[in-house]
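Weekend entry, working from home. Most of the wet-lab plans are on hold until the incubator is repaired, so I used the time to fold the two sequences that have been sitting in the queue since the last round of cloning. Logging both here for the record. First:
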Amino acid sequence: MTGEVFVYSLIVLFGVFISAVSQVILKKRASVKADSFIKEYLNAPVIIAYGIFFAATILTIIGYRVVPLSLGGVLDSTSYLFITAAGIIFFKEKLTARRCVALALIITGIIVFSV
């Protein structure tokens, strides 16, 4: 992997990470009861979350200018790791044996592809 591909891979990974952050914000906000349809979607956390999604999309577009598509898919799969970690930290979700096996398979796939 060249230095340029590495740098752009980090850009894609950062985009994947902030996309996970955005999903956490939206999930937190979904648990709050809104007075109206408008207030449900036009409030600061939701607007910020969608702004973060937009930034993640831009970062992915920038990253894919250099990162091969075959590597991009592998980098995108790290979102499952970020989302699982966020679920455990912010939503007190349980880390079950089934999730551990799934995460191990994802990590194994990432390692196999990168070797």
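Second, folded right after the first finished:
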Amino acid sequence: MIKTLVACTGLALMACSSSNQEKQTTLLKDSTVVKDSLTILNDSLQLSKKTTNCYNDSLNAVADIMSGITDSNSVLDYIQKSRDFKVFSKNFDKRWMSFDSSRLSNLRKFKDTEISKIVKTQPTLFYPFSGPDILYSQTFFPDVNKFVMIGLEPVGSFPEFNQKEKDSLDTYFSKVNTSLNAILKFSFFRTESMSKDLRNEEVDGTLHLLVLFLKRTGNTLCNARALTVDSLGSIRYINSFADLKKLKTNTKGVEITFTDINKQPKTLYYFSLNAADGGLKSNKGFVTYLKNMGPINTYLKGASYLMHKNYFSIIRNTILNQSQHVIQDDSGIAFHYFTESSSKWNYTFYGQYLKPISLFSAFYQADLDSLYKKQGSKPIGFGIGYNFKDKNSNFMIASKQL
């Protein structure tokens, strides 16, 4: 059984400079103390206080284990050499390569040929009802500086990989695999499944999959900090993810700073909260935070048609008021809200608009269907959203007229 790491984060995972990397690795590998991930990350904290450059050898070592990435020079070499890790790494490498070649390559092509030609990049990408899906948002919008994501799922905490339990990690890796089934197969997370897959002792929140996706797509982690948002809409850091779990607050979150494959600095925020009107009316500090984002682009996928409902008006109006572009499938904002808004929008359609799947059959949009047929659409070339088969999927870019 893997315990979640309860005393290592908050301000703990500050960056270690590349100049200190060799010193850090030597210190940890030469230590006579049992080197579980808790010890390593706490040692990393002590070293990190002396520098502000973006590199954290210890954090990336833990993240590599979480994502099944082999590193022969890892400070967690005792885990890297374990039977359970080797099995997970080998099998997931194959699974990821298949996903990358069959799905991600199509997303990247669509980004290059369509999205990048229409969507003017804003510094912030807003992705509500995202769960831990940094994968699609960073693939479609790699030039964004800041990702702001929202979901009901808890933040979670880093796993504690103990040396004494290095050959009993199969349960953790099995639950990671299970939690990925829907998005790797269908392109979205199932809300009902996430309530189980991301709320257990081993995989206790979105942090596990956020880290996995970031590492598997070539990013290097710099820092991870637990946080909340105060009544003035400002971020307040919490000492540890354990303290965050105990905190009585409407908003719990994580900030992950990282550099992408091109060495560009990025920041990811994930907030766990109730985004319905009832939740946001009692969470005015977060509403202020949203307003303070300024101009944004918004991405919506697999959003359960929540913003078709009257009682999601606050977050819907935030998107319509502040977004320069809204990129979504039909489960995002109902089309009539665009035509009724004070702004004028241009629309580019992709794929084919069909009636929603039976679970969401009540959310068929006759106006969207009509405009799809009148204006026409471009081929999409891949499956996405609830109608995830290629010829059934729909995708829309709404661009605000300036």
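Plan for Monday: verify the second prediction. The first strand starts at residue 3 and ends at 4.
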